[in-house]
Amino acid sequence: MEHEAVEAELTTTEQLPGLGSALGQLDCLLARNGSHWIVAHDGVAWETGRVSGDTAAVFDTRHGGRLSGEEDVYVTPVPGGGLAVSGGGSVTVQEADGTVRWTFPHPPWPTGAYGACAPDPSGTALLAVVQPGVETERNEVLVVLDLATGAVLASSTLPTHWGTYAFQQPLGPAATQDVFLNAAQGQEEAYSLLVAATRERLAITRVGGYDEPFTGSSLRSGAFLTLAVAGEQLTRYDTPAGPRTVVEASDVLPDGLVFMGQPGFLDEGRVLAAVGEDPWEEECRHVLLGADDLGLRAEVTYPPDTAVTTRALPLGDGTWLTFDDDTVHRWRTG
Predict the structure, then answer these.
(1) For the chain, how are helix, strand and coil distributed in percent, rounded to 5?
(2) Which of 94, 88, 135, 92 is nearest to 115 (CA)?
(3) pTM for the full model?
(4) SS3 of 97, please?
């Protein structure tokens, strides 16, 4: 398969303390409130940065502080500069100064499982996955909590138990958004759930099969991607009802490579994807695919001594981020 080489051109670099320890955690690279965020927490210290719309900068807003409780948590920024924290036995919202706004207790998570949380698109409620309140119930529960008070507005049982969870918001208009929820159960079974939540309604729609979680990337038109757990299949959806484009790695990639990490829309016409021989290893290459047909267009080449890993974040504006310990690099094609 012939394809061209495209050079990566560095636009800017910035440091985010604690990022090296946070990379790989499901709450590190987030889409919230129409923007990309990077969340670093090392022990009880945390710092978040909102990625700038100016391609000559990495961040335009940063907040930092200390967690009010335990260290093993899933965290997300909330409107006003505060932080929501899903911990071992509670969900907590704290202000930017560390003051606890409210705490919602729940039975503790078993070893190897944990919840997640995210503001709803309106910014007035918090979605959170928690343990069921009754011991005879196995499956985890999605609750909608008032962001100001912690009061329960709605709840629904999920199709998973003993799971691990991650939220992403689409980047499209807030009024029409569903929220992505990846619900992994074991090593191979991963539900992709679209959550539509308002203060009056909670609806959950399953997308795709048991092993194609969302990549977390979307276009402002509403299109989104899913990736098979083992990297053998990449799918584009324009609506949840059915895939628009499905490609097998063996049909579009050379040398027996598979897709890795979290492929995402570089812009309206291109997808940036990490590819390699083993989806569980760090060693990889970056390629560009056509956003419509997901066909291979080019391979990205970097300056010498640049670390190329599966942790790349396409931003939808023609630029993307890569990470080297606490350093964030922003790139564009030359």
Answers:
(1) 5, 55, 45
(2) 88
(3) 0.94
(4) coil
